[in-house]
Structures are given as C-alpha cells and as structure tokens.
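Priority: medium. Attachment 1 of 2:
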C-alpha cells in the first residue's frame, strides 16, 4: 500500500466565510475519485486540523502501488477536480508519499 498526503493553505485573498463551503466542495469532489481513478483505494479529507497544524486542510489517500501516484495525478477526473475545486483556492502545497 502507498499513501499520498497533500496539505494546503488557503490563498490569503479567500474570505473566512467562504472557507467552510470550499472545504466541503473539496472533500465531496476529491472523495468521488474513488472508483473513477484506477488504483485509488481510499480518500480522507481533513477539514478541521488541530490549532497546532501548519496547513488549513489535508488529503490522505491510499493507493495500491507507487506507480499509482503519477497515474492519479494525471488522470482526467483528478485534473478536473483539482482545477475546479482545489487549485483556484489554495497555495503552499506540501506533499508526502510513503509505502507500508
């Protein structure tokens, strides 16, 4: 199994009152990729990190094998979700991939 963890911060210009709905949209649409993207086994969206966190939200995915990560990144369904619901609103992306 491979885990792909991505964290983001909202862009500074995103108003506080918009953030909860944007997070809900991100979670819904990223979660919908399970069953659409080959090798993607699970998605967990972290919308409410602890105050000690350095980022506003995170995505924790589980995939079958390391080769699934670049395939996921390039998959048209993922690209559509990322370009519509994530990238327009975030900055400071951090990523960690590991195998267990």
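Attachment 2 of 2:
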């Amino acid at each position: 199994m491979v885990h792909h963890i991505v964290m983001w911060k909202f862009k500074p210009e995103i108003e506080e009152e918009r953030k909860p709905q944007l997070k809900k949209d991100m979670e819904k649409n990223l979660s919908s990729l399970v069953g659409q993207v080959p090798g993607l086994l699970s998605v967990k969206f972290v919308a409410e990190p602890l105050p000690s966190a350095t980022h506003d939200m995170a995505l924790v995915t589980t995939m079958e094998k390391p080769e699934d990560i670049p395939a996921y990144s390039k998959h048209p369904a993922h690209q559509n979700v990322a370009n519509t619901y994530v990238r327009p609103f975030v900055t400071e992306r951090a990523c960690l991939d590991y195998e267990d």
